[in-house]
Amino acid sequence: MASMVGGMPGAESRVKKVKKVTKSSKLGGDGSTEVVTTETTTTSSSSSHLSQHENGLSSFDQKGGTDNFVEEKMFCHHCDDSLAGHRYVLRDDHPYCIKCYESVFANNCDECSKIIGIDSKDLSYKEKHWHEACFVCTKCRTSLVDKQFGSKADRIYCGSCYDSQFATRCDGCGDVFRAGMKKMEYKTRQWHEKCFTCCTCNNAIGTKSFIPKEHDIYCAKCYEDKFATKCIKCNKVITQGGVTYRNEPWHRECFTCTHCEKSLAGQRFTSRDDQPYCADCFGELFSKRCTACAKPITGKGGLGSTKFVAFETLAWHNECFFCAHCNESMVGKGFIQDEGNIVCPECAKKKMIAEMDAQNE
């Protein structure tokens, strides 16, 4: 808001009345004459900055006891008209009649464009001037004399009209920012301090951390609860690291074997029914077992492309698939199953001959 000053520019705050008196008298018996000249200046205050010149300048001549007065006139410095019997204004010690002073020095009102005469108060703001009666709000026409006002595009407004038309407004409540109010700003948006709140919990954010999303403002906690990536196992926010399994996020420490809970982060693993298992547990729980050694048939560390031999519902590690009699590997060879044992054809033949000999005895 602005303030203004009032007064009549250029005019002095006092009026001078000058009387110059020249006194002559004869002195002595020799007939000589002495001339004594005196000048008297009186100063008086005038609230209207005007002087009433009644007698002009007068000279006083005394001869032989007779007083003779000769009037010397005062004239307007601009038009040279006599000021005798008229009000006038002094400017830079020069007298001006009212008409000349107003035409030369007075300001024009910014509202009505008329001259602000010497009998009017001149209200000024920056380089503009107004009559007291013309100093009003551009919109509601309320007098702004002795009131705060605002200026926009060379026009003046009362506080209410200025706020309603030009004051910045809160993006939260839509009200204007009054003098002394704290303003919270982010990019091109601004809020009253009480309006700068989380859109979810409505708690004031103040100077605390916040996260913007589209046109909404969130406190850190609400943003994490609503948008941050959460572990599929513990449902807590993953702040750093993490692994992805089947397009689902996990904390590294939460991504463990379903059976033994050993961490699988950075390790080879497999799954069963969408559940992750380490190689050892998967082999123990789900792999075929060797008919010979009863151990799981898995690759190195429980996974891989371990070669094995399968027959009907039975399976053997390659290294376990040998003849029960001669221990010769039967991988890739024909074999005979004898009472659950794998027997090479040669050993089977020998056994059959031995059994026949025993029957013939």
Automatic annotation (TrEMBL):
Source organism of this protein record: Lepeophtheirus salmonis
Residue ranges occupied by any LIM zinc-binding domain in the UniProt entry: 107-168, 169-228, 229-288, 289-354
Superkingdom to which the source organism belongs: Eukaryota
Molecular-function GO terms, alphabetical: transcription coregulator activity; zinc ion binding
InterPro entries: LIM_FHL1/2/3/5_N, Znf_LIM
Lineage: Eukaryota, Metazoa, Ecdysozoa, Arthropoda, Crustacea
Biased composition (Low complexity): 32-48
Subcellular localization: Nucleus
Main location: nucleus
Protein name: Four and a half LIM domains protein 2
Gene Ontology cellular-component annotations: nucleus; Z disc
Any Pfam family: LIM
